[in-house]
Amino acid sequence: MAANFWTSTQRAHWQLTRDKIADMRRGLDEEDTTKGLGLVYPLPDHKQLQLYFHNCLQRLARRLQLRQQPLATAETYLKRFYLKVSIRDTNPYLMLSTCVYLACKMEECPQHIRSVVNEARTLFQEFIPTDIAKLAECEFHLISELNSYLIVHHPYRTLMEVQVPLKLSPDEVMAAWSFLNDSYITDLILLYPPHTIAFTAIFLAVFVRPAIHTQANLNASGSTALNMGTAAGAGGSIVQPSVGQSVAVSAASNNPPNPSSARLSQISEWFAESGVEMEAIIECTQEMISLYDAWETWTDKVCRESVARLIRGRQLS
Amino acid sequence: MSAPTGPSTSSTLGNAKRTLPFGNGNGNDTPLLAMAAETGDVKLQNDDSDASDNDDPDDLNTRIKKKYTKDRKLGEGAYAVVNLGHRRATATESAVPVAIKKIKVNTEFRDGITMDAIREVKYLRELHHPNIIALLDVFSSKNQNLCLVLEFLDSDLEMIIRDTSQTLSMGDIKSWMLMSLRGLWWCHKSFVIHRDIKPNNLLLAANGVLKLADFGLARSFADPKRNMTHQVITRWYRPPELFYGAKHYSSSVDIFSLGLVFCELMLRTPFLAGNTDLHQLELICQWLGTPTEENWPGVSSLPGYHDAGGAQVKERGTDFFMNTFIAAGESGVELLMKMLRLDPRKRCTARAALDAKWFSQEPYPTLPANLPKKGGGKGIEKVGSDLKRKAGELFNTPDERGKKVARKLDFGGGGG
């Protein structure tokens, strides 16, 4: 938390509309096509890539024992960056490591550049240059593409603040927290103020989770990708598991959420009276649900291979 | 981008950049240049090392960059070079002097951009207030440099305090305190602690307005239970809890520092000028009182607390302050005492301080335009010379360095 969201650069410069984001992405794609890169280095669509980058970031964050906040900041940086620079002009692995490195400094938990490079190399091997100066150089470009608007406001704080007045159970907070983690796969942080995303997560955790529950459970059994890194995260489990995992856990403990209807109506009343934009929450919810849809069929193989081909082909490592 | 090697990758980035909606400033450049040519501003005095970062029409951020010229070097510091420059005159605005702070990528430790620079950019990008130095623009040059364009301020409160040829009226002091508190209030309201309040970080604009500067040590409030370093704030202005190694503290550290600046404005010399950290703590005990469980519940459980033993001085009351700072008058002393309370929880907030009776009583705060100005023309060097010393330090001489507050990255993850 720093500065005030309402006067922040995030609100002034980095809260975009869906159309704007689509325009920016289309612009980059067209540029690639004219340069002839689009055909030579086909990439999966951006939803697929976002899932992939999210996984990569999460794995790196686990290795570095990061808290959720710097990870969320790094995810936001990467999203912002790739709205302005084409993926095909970059080495995505180096870029996402740079985002983690800068985010750590920003969130006052600096990591040594050497350890970021080392950990990144264990994950992405030859795609990360050993020379730390490369990452330092990338940091500079990142800051410059972000127009040095570096402070990011996240929804986690709102969740923590309203859990008491809303009398959320630890289970619900945990679930909402996981929804928030997953929200960083989507563009929500580029579209809505953080509190809207937080209320969406609460809404999902309290009202929609029983429905998703079954679906995500299927997911979890069907796709190993969902569970990736559970073992790696054992060290204090600083980075929280995603919904897929936590739902699986709650299913295992045979304790599905079953809030009393009185409480539900209390919470909906609170929502109604709070002046939260319900329309925005519905839109966010749809975004999240379509994420879980896409996730169901997603595997990292295609992304991994096409990114590798890109880096090798353009000799970006 | 890829790991760029040399100029070739810069052009890769350049290409990428050209696709951006705002990257290409050609439309604007011509009139700007023409205008500048008329006023004779075009020539860039290229007095620092990297020649290549000027005048390349293909360079990044061309539009922003072209708005400014660099006139001459003011100073060079650990992480930045400062140049005096100005914003070129345009059809609607006349030329404005600016300070261009070029941040070097840390080549020595090879650990990217230093935390100081990051913090400065991070906070100044968000904080906008008349009493906080304005970051006008940021642009980058392809030589790995980030350039911050800051409002140019030509003197600071320290120069005024040291210039004994001028007398400062209580109205003047009130005015400076008022402006400092407003700036500080805005920081704290935005959850930022400055952590290096001292007279030479309170800069003065030509029109007399005071502005908080140097956010190299600033940070946002930590989350509960997260540690912060106690190695901050220049020693003479550091509050007792930091000497005791407190890892959790709040905006009240800034209030204490500003309280001591208040004293200094009246005394015209630092009130508590310790030679070592221990000596500084002794001075605090001697002049303000010895921290005890009685006047500061919980103090003895701070990690660095030690019982001074011997003579204990009771926390000073109104009598002492009235004798020492009689000039401030009753309401001024009342405010000062609230700012210098030993127990950080008892200190007033910036908001409460702004409500002090003192400000609404005669003599009223002097209008900024009528405030005493720095003597002579030395002021122009201010922004530059300041850089030579690292924040948190007192002296420029190299041998003094290192004995002072150490600033380094804290890799413990405990926060800096």
Automatic annotation (TrEMBL), chain A:
<dbReference type="GO" id="GO:0006357">
    <property type="term" value="P:regulation of transcription by RNA polymerase II"/>
</dbReference>
<dbReference type="InterPro" id="IPR006671">
    <property type="entry name" value="Cyclin_N"/>
</dbReference>
<comment type="similarity">
    <text>Belongs to the cyclin family. Cyclin C subfamily.</text>
</comment>
<feature type="domain" description="Cyclin-like">
    <location>
        <begin position="55"/>
        <end position="144"/>
    </location>
</feature>
<dbReference type="GO" id="GO:0016538">
    <property type="term" value="F:cyclin-dependent protein serine/threonine kinase regulator activity"/>
</dbReference>
<keyword id="KW-0195">Cyclin</keyword>
<protein>
    <recommendedName>
        <fullName>RNA polymerase II holoenzyme cyclin-like subunit</fullName>
    </recommendedName>
</protein>
<dbReference type="InterPro" id="IPR013763">
    <property type="entry name" value="Cyclin-like_dom"/>
</dbReference>
<dbReference type="Pfam" id="PF00134">
    <property type="entry name" value="Cyclin_N"/>
</dbReference>
<dbReference type="InterPro" id="IPR036915">
    <property type="entry name" value="Cyclin-like_sf"/>
</dbReference>
<dbReference type="InterPro" id="IPR043198">
    <property type="entry name" value="Cyclin/Ssn8"/>
</dbReference>
From TrEMBL, chain B:
<protein>
    <submittedName>
        <fullName>TFIIH complex serine/threonine-protein kinase subunit kin28</fullName>
    </submittedName>
</protein>
<feature type="compositionally biased region" description="Acidic residues">
    <location>
        <begin position="47"/>
        <end position="59"/>
    </location>
</feature>
<feature type="active site" description="Proton acceptor">
    <location>
        <position position="196"/>
    </location>
</feature>
<feature type="binding site">
    <location>
        <position position="102"/>
    </location>
    <ligand>
        <name>ATP</name>
    </ligand>
</feature>
<dbReference type="Pfam" id="PF00069">
    <property type="entry name" value="Pkinase"/>
</dbReference>
<dbReference type="InterPro" id="IPR037770">
    <property type="entry name" value="CDK7"/>
</dbReference>
<dbReference type="GO" id="GO:0005524">
    <property type="term" value="F:ATP binding"/>
</dbReference>
<dbReference type="GO" id="GO:0070985">
    <property type="term" value="C:transcription factor TFIIK complex"/>
</dbReference>
<feature type="binding site">
    <location>
        <begin position="74"/>
        <end position="82"/>
    </location>
    <ligand>
        <name>ATP</name>
    </ligand>
</feature>
<dbReference type="InterPro" id="IPR017441">
    <property type="entry name" value="Protein_kinase_ATP_BS"/>
</dbReference>
<dbReference type="GO" id="GO:0045944">
    <property type="term" value="P:positive regulation of transcription by RNA polymerase II"/>
</dbReference>
<feature type="compositionally biased region" description="Polar residues">
    <location>
        <begin position="1"/>
        <end position="14"/>
    </location>
</feature>
<dbReference type="InterPro" id="IPR000719">
    <property type="entry name" value="Prot_kinase_dom"/>
</dbReference>
<comment type="similarity">
    <text>Belongs to the protein kinase superfamily. CMGC Ser/Thr protein kinase family. CDC2/CDKX subfamily.</text>
</comment>
<keyword id="KW-0597">Phosphoprotein</keyword>
<feature type="domain" description="Protein kinase">
    <location>
        <begin position="68"/>
        <end position="359"/>
    </location>
</feature>
<keyword id="KW-0723">Serine/threonine-protein kinase</keyword>
<dbReference type="InterPro" id="IPR050108">
    <property type="entry name" value="CDK"/>
</dbReference>
<keyword id="KW-0808">Transferase</keyword>
<keyword id="KW-0547">Nucleotide-binding</keyword>
<feature type="region of interest" description="Disordered">
    <location>
        <begin position="1"/>
        <end position="63"/>
    </location>
</feature>
<dbReference type="GO" id="GO:0008353">
    <property type="term" value="F:RNA polymerase II CTD heptapeptide repeat kinase activity"/>
</dbReference>
